[in-house]
Design goal:
- The complex is a heterotrimer of chains A (about 700), B (about 325) and C (about 450).
- With about 700 residues, chain A is α/β, with parallel strands linked by helices.
- In chain A, the strands form five sheets. In chain A, strands 6-7-8-3-9-10-12-11 form an eight-stranded mixed β-sheet, sandwiched between helices. An eight-stranded mixed β-sheet of chain A has the order 18-19-20-15-21-22-26-25, with helices on both faces.
- In chain A, a hairpin with a 4-residue loop joins strand 13 and strand 14.
- With about 325 residues, chain B is an all-alpha fold.
- Chain B has two domains: about 60 residues, no CATH class; about 210 residues, MetI-like (MetI-like fold).
- In chain B, helix 6 packs across helix 9.
- The longest helix of chain B has about 35 residues.
- Chain B is globular, with a radius of gyration of 25 Å.
- Chain C is mainly α and about 450 residues long.
- In chain C, strand 4 and strand 5 form a beta hairpin.
- Chain C is about 70% helix and about 5% strand.
- In chain C, the strands form two sheets. Chain C has a three-stranded antiparallel β-sheet.
- Classes of the chains: A alpha/beta (about 700), B mainly alpha (about 325), C mainly alpha (about 450).
Chain lengths: ~700, ~325, ~450
């Protein structure tokens, strides 16, 4: 196959000299999707920007060659480079919401690219714009052309970005985390679109991502980046079947999934090294459990394995392989590890609890935010963020609340803690109804229920030391008799979450994201709660760090008998951690049941779509079909201000019937533990009955 | 959106009432009319009769807020508050110490003020934005550093020196234009030239730097990267994309002062002998003519509030998010 | 001698104490030190701080006020002079007391105006008479003047340089002892230290020359009543500093409390606070200040019995000007803080505190205040130069400081009237221009460095 793009020994550095992209080489064949996979800060986005020569101020290309169709584009004058940008080589970005000019219409922005690269103007350009928008799957094209970005949803904006990139008929499309900011069902749509476009136009795609799931769905070739270097490169199937580099192996092992539910995840200790802090040896050596002296002393070279897989690791140096060390097949060790823990799996699955010892019982919770409008600011409607949610959590159990962004799951968490005032419904915690309690009475109940937030950078006050952060709750809720006792408790807590006791005199900015999340957990634990509400606690973290936090949460539950309400959009994490699952759509729960029930045999069409949108990668790194027919959803979630008549899901539901458009379906009890709000179930049950 | 604008306009009324109460408090409660009379008449030859006479002339001899001796509506209307403060809502400002009608005086003096302030504003805005765009285009280079250094230097010089220096150089050394005075009609141009030039130059430092900050903030946003990735040249990125977005924060500071241009500039007008509202205010302050000062305070607030509403309207012109939501 | 503490003196020393206490506190906390360390790595920041601190030193010396006991006693009781003087006046008594008859140009030996004089021969002659003090020691003016000026300047410069070197040596010794460093000759490699060193030596040389010349000449000439302009300009510094600092001190509590309260509580609290600041900011500030100052003037003139000395009266007027400026200018900072608080209150650490049931006052003081302090600090240093400039304009307009208070505004005001003379009397204006420019420029540059060091939006990777 012909190589469209060839990158050789590319080095991109900060002006201070620190290399961000350090000696990277790869080739992309025509019509192929090449994925650059890595965790945050590994230099993958900088690689993409280097190719486009769009590096931000303070960063520059130091050396290397980039050939696009045999033309060295790094030596081109800026004028000629502009012809290539948006022409032969186009790029789309992570945040579609920020990447479009907010004060220009979609049509104008696309037309700009057409005028530049296709010399199309006026009516011809407009016709072509409409064509492009149709090509990327937008409906009502004429109206969309005159729309401003804020009038479009996130998914639509990313489609517009793709249309704009396609306007120059590029040979290479660089997609920098194109789906990271999107929900799973929308992500599936956009990936499908990229795949289709590639088939039609034969362009190559350079996909920058941190998500193994995305790689699994779309990539042909994969290069794994770590700390500015490519550590492994192989065709997708081969990489997934036989990851060679210890880092790649660990990445797969760190992915949570159902079969690992009973035991700890193989987390990678520590975190990605900071820029410029790398030593002379292998950059992964400090976190690698197979490292030996040589790894710390000498940078491994690029080795091509017999199966053409490239890897940067001393384990595969020819002389090493033949003599001292046997490259361990991760599949073997993983299988071994898996089987050794099989026995403990059952400890997570308790027998059914009777309804009497529920720790938290929520009945018909509603949170409506009024919308004011007009001259007198009268209430003209409500954003029904949470619209009648009921759930219950037993002591020592984990209930997961799953849904896409905007479905109201975070608001549920805050309403439980009374951080937002519920409009209606009851929240009974340990037998007391919290709704409508005064501040004083509420304080008594506060200790029992605490929250862990999504963003580890925003959840700790940067001006307080760790000890003060941990002490705050104890002070307010009068836990511990005196300061010595509290200091002891702080030491204890830091031990519990796996931080050194000396860290209590330090400030949040001195810690990495994962460590901060540990501090946040310690803060919540400080007041001895029996229920933790975890709001996407790992979604801002890298996969390797996510595994550490999940392990910690699991251990804490076993040791302290905690209950969790685990709010997440990540089904794999839910499958690993939770006992029961509630699936939320537009402020309501559409399906609930045990993890096994919901994940293995989803009944609501929305749940099915959610689960089938994400490929399942199991611990051995193989892509396993989830055994559920793939449901691709059309469109996006409507606004909670004005939910559709009848079943909220019917406009996107492939099985929608007339009855779905009339009334919201009542709960159908499929089993003791399981409820589904869907007319398909009602009719099913009627048939059986 | 219309409802939003109407709400903003309605909000102007409580604000104006607030301004009115505040000025009333300042002028009549902090010091009694007796104090003012003594001040005006001089401390020495002051007799109770003279004070009474002065108060009567000025219309300050009524009760402040509530006339207990009057009947019916005049209980409220026959008071200093009603006569001096409430009447301002219909632009009835009463008479100055020299006996002239303040409202009429304001009318005739607005034009010269505007003749100086408007060109200064327009030329200045264009120049500052161009200058800032220039610095933004050359950001990170020596030219940019030099521009910023120049700005910091220029903004460290007191406005008084621009006027004194400009007047001295142009009028005395070069004999270009008359250094002060004003006539109406086409001849006014030679009287306007120097004050406008000085006004424009004195603003370069602060405004140039401020706009540069706005542009730099804008140029680091993601959509600019998208525009570059499209293959647009840096100039087209700057003019086609950045400028449009930067107009939003720029308008916030700029539109609000447009109505205030009517008020003129205190310093420029008094230095150049322009018979505008600025020099009127200064003269009133020096003569301690409280009636005029009170009128100008009220007028200023009205114009400021008009400016706020204009700002809101201008957003709808440049920002589709405001226009369409 | 009777010490006199004027209101503004008290405020200044309160402010100084606060800053020292703050610095002491910051020293102990590495995260508070961090941005200041960034300031310390900037040559520009350190040099402008050095120049600012010279101004501040003059201002502080000029704030130690006292009244001299008169020699004759009244019934055994000591009687004090009505004139309030400061420690600075005592130090610069030479400058203060050597007044001429009227104008004289810088370094001049003759008066600006011609006078009728009687020659030894008995003729009446109109010419510029010799100055009483400026260059009075010269015998033959045509022959000696230039040589004398150059000689005095060079000697002074050399003496200044020597003093500068001694000063630096003293600082080094103290510094080394504190560090426990035993390097014989410390290497000066980092640029801020080098810049500081060079600036110190240059300034020392310059001041040496000026001081030596000022002993026998009027370096910046004299004004209409024959006062030394250098003295007047130096006295103006205190007024500028007082206006620039105490005004923000007045602004601060309003802006901080109201801004944070509006942002945190929202609802009706926000509505009321927004209403107040819209009303205040809708009045053009010069007019509001003018109106308030006029009213304050009336009050002060109506109550002469409140003040023991004219200095006390002028001082109260200065303080009121600060109050008025402060009360009319807190709205900008208030709006800024409200916006920031609105953002902060949605942050997760605030919600974490709320979920512990932490009370609102405690959340405000523990979580919100510390996280908006950088805005307050940036606003304070940025406002300083603006206020110094505003004083000049207001004093010119006639709503500034008391005419008897020496300030840049009164200097300019007096000088402007003389611009029409022939030959032109330029020196007073030039002195005011020069002093203000250096002060404001240093303040602006320092403010820039502080802003860059504290602004969280700028990344500080390096």
């Amino acid at each position: 196959m012909n190589n469209l793009l060839s990158v050789q020994a590319l080095v991109t550095a900060l002006n201070s000299g620190t290399a961000i992209v350090d000696d990277i080489s790869f080739d992309i064949a025509e019509g192929e999707t090449f994925a650059l996979l890595g965790e945050s800060g590994c230099g993958k986005s900088m690689t993409a920007l280097s190719l486009m020569r769009l590096l931000p101020d303070g960063v520059h290309l130091k050396q290397g060659e980039v050939h696009l169709a045999n033309e060295n584009i790094l030596t081109l004058p800026e004028r000629d480079m502009r012809r290539i940008r948006g022409g032969r080589m186009a790029m789309i970005f992570q945040e579609p919401g920020l990447s479009l000019n907010p004060v220009m219409t979609v049509g104008t922005q696309i037309a700009e690219a057409l005028a530049l690269h296709q010399d199309m103007h006026g009516a011809m350009a407009e016709a072509r714009c409409a064509e492009l928008l149709e090509q990327v799957g937008l409906s009502d094209v004429q109206r969309r052309l005159r729309a401003y970005p804020f009038q479009l949803s996130g998914g639509m904006k990313q489609r517009v970005m793709i249309a704009m990139a396609l306007a120059g008929q590029p040979k290479l499309l660089i997609a920098d985390e194109p789906t990271t900011a999107l929900d799973v069902t929308i992500q599936a749509q956009v990936l499908q679109l990229l795949r289709n476009t590639q088939q039609q136009s034969g362009m190559s795609i350079l996909l920058i991502t941190h998500d193994l799931g995305v790689v699994a769905q779309i990539a042909h070739q994969v290069a794994v980046m770590y700390a500015g270097q490519i550590v492994e490169q192989a065709p997708r199937a081969q990489l997934f079947a036989h990851p060679a580099h210890p880092y790649t192996q660990k990445l797969f092992a760190a992915l949570p999934h159902a079969s690992s539910a009973g035991h700890a995840l193989a987390a990678i200790s520590g975190s990605v090294p900071a820029l410029g802090s790398t030593g002379v040896g292998c950059r992964f050596a400090p976190r690698c459990d197979q490292a030996w002296a040589r790894c710390h002393a000498e940078m491994p070279g690029w080795t091509i394995l017999p199966n053409k897989q490239g890897v940067r690791c001393h384990l595969y140096d020819t002389n090493e392989v033949s003599t001292t060390r046997q490259p361990p097949g991760i599949s073997a060790s993983q299988a071994e590890q898996g089987s050794s823990h099989k026995g403990t799996m059952s400890d997570g699955v308790h027998p059914q609890h009777s309804s009497t010892n529920y720790l938290l019982q929520v009945e018909n919770l509603r949170v409506h935010f009024p919308i004011y409008k007009g001259i007198l600011q009268r209430t003209v409607g409500y954003v029904k963020a949470v619209d009648g949610v009921s759930l219950a959590i037993a002591a020592g159990r984990t209930l997961a609340l799953v849904g896409e962004s905007g479905c109201g799951k975070t608001t549920v968490g805050k309403a439980l803690l009374q951080l937002v005032q519920p409009t209606a419904g009851s929240v009974r915690f340990a037998g007391n109804d919290l709704v409508g309690l005064g501040a004083q009475q509420l304080r008594v109940q506060r200790a029992g229920m605490q929250m862990i937030f999504q963003d580890p950078y925003a959840s700790l006050n940067p001006k307080m030391r760790v000890a003060e952060i941990l002490q705050e709750g104890m002070d307010v809720l009068s836990i511990g008799k005196n300061s010595t006792e509290r200091q002891q408790r702080i030491d204890e807590l830091l031990d519990q979450v796996g931080l050194a006791q000396t860290s209590k005199w330090r400030y949040p900015h001195e810690f990495s994201g994962g460590q901060r999340q540990r501090i946040a957990i310690a803060r919540a634990l400080a007041v001895n709660p029996s229920l933790l509400i975890c709001d996407e606690p790992t979604s801002a973290l890298d996969v390797s760090v996510q595994a550490q936090i999940l392990n910690l949460l699991k251990t804490l539950q076993q040791e302290l008998g905690l209950s969790y309400l685990f709010i997440s959009h990540n089904l794999a994490v839910v499958e690993y951690l939770a006992h029961e699952v509630c699936v939320m759509y537009l402020g309501r729960i559409v399906e609930r049941g045990t993890v096994a029930e919901v994940m293995r045999a989803p009944r609501h069409p929305y749940t099915r779509a959610l689960i089938s949108a994400v490929p399942h990668i199991d611990g051995s790194g193989t892509l396993s079909p989830c055994g559920i027919e793939t449901v691709r959803l059309e469109g996006e979630m409507p606004s909670p201000t004005n939910p559709p008549q009848g079943c909220y899901f019917h406009p996107r539901c492939p099985h929608a019937m007339n009855v779905c458009r009339a009334d919201y379906p009542e709960a159908t009890h499929v089993s003791d533990t399981r409820q589904v709000h869907c007319y398909l179930e009602t009719t099913e049950k009627a048939k059986q009955g | 959106m219309i409802a939003y604008l109407i709400r903003r306009i309605l909000y102007a009324f409580p604000v104006l009432i607030g301004v009115n109460l505040l000025t009333f408090f300042l002028f009549f409660v902090v010091n009694t009319p007796d104090d003012m009379a003594r001040m005006q008449l001089g401390m020495k030859r002051v007799t109770p009769e003279a004070i009474e006479k002065w108060k009567q002339q000025q219309g300050y001899d009524k009760p402040l807020m509530l006339n207990t001796q009057a009947a019916g509506m005049s209980k409220i209307s026959d008071t200093v508050f009603f006569e001096k403060s409430v009447r301002m809502f219909v632009f009835d400002f009463g008479y100055a110490n020299d006996g002239r009608n303040i409202a009429r005086e304001i009318q005739t003096r607005m034009l010269p003020s505007l003749a100086i302030a408007l060109p200064t504003f327009v030329v200045g805005l264009l120049l500052y934005i161009t200058f800032a765009l220039f610095m933004t285009l050359f950001r990170g280079t020596a030219l940019d550093t030099l521009g910023v250094a120049l700005c910091v230097f220029l903004m460290s010089v007191s406005g008084l020196f621009y006027i004194i220096g400009g007047q001295f150089l142009a009028g005395k050394l070069w004999h270009w234009v008359p250094i002060s005075g004003y006539v109406g009609g086409a001849d006014s141009i030679k009287f306007i030239l120097l004050p406008v030039l000085i006004g424009v130059v004195s603003g370069i430092g602060a405004s140039g730097r401020w706009y540069r900050t706005i542009f730099l903030e804008e140029i680091n946003k993601d959509y600019v990267r998208t525009a570059r990735a499209k293959g647009l040249s840096e100039l087209r990125v700057l003019f086609g994309h950045v400028l449009k977005n930067a107009m939003i924060p720029i308008l916030t500071g700029v539109v609000v002062v447009i109505p205030l241009l009517f008020m003129g500039s205190l310093l420029t007008e008094s230095f150049f002998g322009i018979p505008g509202l600025g020099s009127y205010t200064i003269d009133a302050i020096n003569a301690q003519d409280f009636g005029v000062v009170r009128a100008m305070v009220f007028l200023g607030s009205v114009l400021y509030i008009v400016g706020l509403v204009l700002t809101d309207i201008s957003y709808t012109l440049v920002d589709p998010r405001v226009r369409l939501q | 001698m009777m010490p006199v503490v004027l209101w503004t003196d008290a405020m200044i020393f309160l402010l100084l104490a606060t800053i020292l206490a703050g610095a002491w506190h910051i020293r102990k906390w590495p995260h508070l030190m961090l941005p200041w360390q960034r300031v310390a790595t900037s040559s520009m920041g350190m040099v402008s701080l050095l120049i600012l601190s010279l101004f501040i030193m003059v201002g502080l010396l000029d704030s130690l006020h006292y009244r001299i006991a008169l020699p004759d006693k009244n019934n055994g009781q000591t009687v004090y002079s009505a004139e309030v003087v400061s420690a600075f006046d005592a130090l610069a008594s030479g400058l203060k007391n050597r007044t001429e008859k009227t104008y004289s140009a810088p370094m001049a030996v003759y008066l600006y105006a011609k006078e009728s004089m009687e020659t030894p021969g008995g003729e009446i002659l109109r010419d510029h008479p010799r100055l009483r003090f400026g260059g009075a020691h010269l015998q033959n003016i045509e022959r000696d003047w230039l040589g004398d000026v150059v000689q005095k300047a060079v000697y002074g410069a050399l003496a200044g340089l020597l003093l500068g070197v001694l000063l630096i040596a003293a600082v080094w010794i103290l510094f080394l002892r504190q560090r426990g460093d035993h390097l014989p000759l410390p290497k000066i490699t980092d640029s801020p230290r080098k810049a500081l060193l060079i600036t110190t030596l240059l300034l020392a040389t310059f001041f040496g020359a000026v001081a030596n010349l000022a002993a026998s000449y009027h370096v910046l000439g004299t004004d209409k009543v024959g006062q030394d302009v250098l003295y007047l300009a130096l006295k103006s510094i205190r007024t500028g500093l007082v206006i620039g600092t105490i005004t923000t001190l007045v602004t601060l509590p309003f802006a901080l409390l109201l801004g944070v309260a509006a942002g945190y509580f929202r609802g009706w609290v926000d509505d009321i606070i927004q209403y107040i600041y819209t009303v205040l900011s809708s009045i053009p500030s010069v007019l509001l200040i003018a109106a308030a100052v006029l009213m304050m003037q009336v009050t002060i003139e109506m109550h002469p019995e409140w003040f023991e000395t004219s200095a006390a009266r002028a001082d109260v007027r200065l303080l009121s000007l600060c109050l008025i400026l402060g009360l009319t200018s807190w709205t900008g900072l208030c709006r800024l803080l409200r916006g920031e608080t609105l953002k902060l209150r949605e942050l997760e650490y605030i919600q974490a505190a709320q979920s512990f049931g932490v009370s609102s006052p405690r959340i405000i003081t523990q979580h919100i205040m510390p996280n908006v302090m950088h805005i307050v600090l940036i606003a304070m240093v940025m406002d300083f130069s603006g206020l110094v400039l505003a004083e000049a304009v207001l004093s010119y307009v006639g709503v500034g400081v008391d005419p008897s208070t020496m300030s840049f505004g009164t200097l300019i005001n007096a000088a402007r009237l003389e611009m029409g003379r022939e030959p032109i009397v330029w020196w007073t204006l030039a002195a005011a221009f020069g002093f203000m420019l250096v002060l404001v420029l240093a303040a602006n540059l320092f403010a820039d460095v502080v802003r860059d060091a504290f602004d969280p939006r700028l990344s500080h990777k390096n």
